[in-house]
Amino acid sequence: MNLTKIKEIFSGNSKQSNIKIGGWVRAFRGNKFIELNDGSSLKNIQCVINPETTDAETLKHISVGSSLIISGNIVKSIGSGQKIEISVEEISIIGRSDPEKYPIQPKKHSFEFLREQAHLRIRTATFGSVMRVRSSLAYAIHSFFNEQGFYYVNTPIITSSDAEGAGEMFKVSTLDFENIERNKKKEIDYSKDFFGKKTSLTVSGQLEAETYALGLGNVYTFGPTFRAENSNTSRHLSEFWMIEPEMAFYNLSDNMDLAEKFVKSILNFILKNCEDDLNFLSERLFNEEKTKPQIERSELNLIEKIKFVVKNNFIRVSYSDAFDILKNSNKNKKKKFEFIIDEWGIDFQSEHERYLVEKHFKSPVIIHDYPSKIKAFYMRLNDDKKTVGAMDVLFPGIGEIIGGSQREERLEVLRTRIKESGIDEDEIWWYLDLRKYGSVPHSGFGLGFERIVQFCTGMSNIRDVIPYPRSPKNASF
Ligand code: 4AD
Ligand code: MG
User: pTM of this prediction?
Assistant: First the structure.
């Protein structure tokens, strides 16, 4: 059809006359002014028709939500609000829309309402911006790793291992639920199942990525992961996307360096390439925050927050030092935390993470060397035998955005950790093989894609940064 994108028109790079554009009507005023949007840009283009020369049938069917192809010329606008507009020569209605019933009206809708209209919410300014930023971040992630010489690997989605050892997995099965066969011990006989064993959706591609790092050197995955945890929070999804780099010959310090460089690089990319969308989202957030009490408002606007992260060094602090800061904080002494910090070894809750990032350090923070008891079996045991070479990157407003570690490369130490974690060695014999044949120190981390999209767009609920969110009791669309 050879259509010109609205973005090209605004950038001044398109031809000026006899252009054709296709899009959806965002507003129609005075039987004359059409606000058209084709998804390429935040801004709508105003298309001006002459009601006298446009046939009545066409006029009748131009309404919010209908799709049109418009031919015309780019002209200077005499009206206020826009510099240029399209003077319409010809207009074709491609798909009608019932203006009475179309759910997305040119007014403010709540995000709760729009979640129920997830198939149409992409036609709003906010979701258009969020999803363009999301797409740019994905592109920036692939570019970064490509430039750094990493290989992109695809790890399996159906798996028989539980990478995080947390057991919060969705089962994958073709067994007949109505009529499940059990053996004499009343156990389900998974040998009769599709794969001949118990299988689930993956919670992480890490273990398989490790095998590839110990052959290709530096690799990364970028794929969907699934967690059947019953967390109904604004930062948890049951299906989310994760980026997991894994590097041979990297220690924990190299790992932290890479994580920081990586995040800064992708934030820089969107600062340069998503200016319009970020300005709009920044303004949106500012207006949303105006409705909140003063103390809950952030001092920086969205763009300033992103720039702050790019410009400043992430503060690195060990778990033990973070523990002392928290324990001795006035907030803890006055028992203002829901979970009081008393004994070394407890896991930090998001209230503690936020205190460290937003109140104490006022900066992104990397906490490293956590107690081994609260971390996964594959993390490298430190010489103190109490802590492991783990790292979590914490961001303002979000909390944990990255979790990673140096991996345990010593066979016997790993075996002990596996046993302590109650994992069956036979299930991950291949993972142990890596430690038998040419084992090397190696490290990696996982960035939650939706969490970084949340940070960059200022959306307070993670369900609004993925097209079709999955969460407990919710898998519509
Ligand atoms: O800390 P996690 O569980 O780490 C791993 O899965 C490791 N295997 C990663 C690695 O070392 N290769 O998850 C990593 C990140 C978290 O920091 C968080 O940003 C995100 O994934 N995440 C979630 N995002 C949305 N919804 C959830 N339920 C999430 N759980 C984790
Ligand atoms: Mg984690």
Answer: 0.96
